[in-house]
Amino acid sequence: MRDALVAAAFQLFPERGYEQTTVDDIVTLAGVGRRSFFRYFPSKEDVVFPDHERCLADMTAFLAAGTDEDEPVRRVCDAARLVLRMYAENPTFSVQRYRLTKKVPGLRAYELSVVWRYERALAEYLRGRFDGRPDGALRADVIAAAVVAAHNNALRSWLRSAGQGDADSAVDHALGHVQAVFGTPPADAPAEDQEDVVVVISRRGAPMWRVVREIEATLGRD
């Protein structure tokens, strides 16, 4: 019945427009009563986003199941991939919803509130992992916001392309930037993947060209 209500709603929205479609219209097409609608959806907005509550619960459970051995930035990036999986399960529906949301300001505001809840779930996990560290809460909030921004940048590009292309690769690429900036490299990472530090000692007052030449000589560059 829940799926039938969603299908009826998304059949009517393109035909009549979101604002002009009523709950009565939706239940009539679905062949159920109003009470059945509100058993599944608190409002008409909720029928547009029927899967986010489940996804948020899955994300929260995934984060809670983590251990202290998990690298925290990688863990929240993996949690964000659960949202992509939700969208990729039904590309046709996801693209249709994206196009509808772009046209209706109220739905855009609703979507922002949903995104904020995902971000808060990520930040809460990170706050627990960074507890006691200098600026731990600040770092948690910044990383959570970066993960959401990177994920949504790739996801929306995929939706704008009507669900064409490899969404997984696009999101992996975007989240890779977050991990490169904020994450901790694995202990067994190859040496070439880690930054070298070069210390050059020069006389006080030495001209800058001489200091630059010493640095280039140390690095073996012309």
Can you describe this structure?
The chain is an all-alpha fold. Helices cover 71% and strands 0% of the residues.
Which terms would index this structure?
single chain; 222 residues; mainly alpha; Arc Repressor Mutant, subunit A; Tetracycline Repressor, domain 2; 2 domains; 11 helices; 71% helix; 0% strand; elongated
List the total number of helices: 11
Q: Please report the total strand number as a whole number.
A: 0
Rg over CA atoms, rounded to whole Å, is 24 Å
Poorly predicted runs are none
> Per CATH, which architecture of the largest domain?
Orthogonal Bundle
CATH homologous superfamily caption of the largest domain = Tetracycline Repressor, domain 2
Number of domains: 2
What is the terminal-to-terminal distance? Answer: 72 Å
Which structural category do the helix and sheet elements fall into? mainly alpha
The pLDDT mean sits at: 89
The main pleated sheet reads as: none
Name of the CATH first level of the largest domain: Mainly Alpha
State the assembly state of the protein chains: single chain
Global geometry: elongated
Which H/E pattern describes the elements?
HHHHHHHHHHH
Quick structural summary:
By secondary structure, the protein is mainly α.
